[in-house]
User: Fold this.
Amino acid sequence: MTEAEETKFYQNLGRQIRAGTKPPELNRPIVCRECGPVWSMQPAAILSDSCFWCGNRFAGRPIPRPPISPEMQKILQEIGSFNRKEPVKKSAGFVGSKFL
Ligand SMILES: [Zn+2]
Assistant:
């Protein structure tokens, strides 16, 4: 991909994400610590600190949800809550399985 093609690719991706539409390129279901289950791009790690949809969460825009695999379910139980409106402060830690 040339730089111009890459710019166009990400602009197009961004447009779809802002519209709350799942771009076909995002076909990897993952768990974002902030957003919960979301679509990401291969080969993303199954648990991520942030994702393509964090901007939608901040802005209150829709986030299309992937099916939750048993592996994702386990992670969701481990991390406790998500769906946060505010970013997690880096100084925040865990108490048990819940975010502070
Ligand atoms: Zn996110």
User: Anything to note?
Assistant: Confidence is low (pLDDT under 50) at residues 87-100.
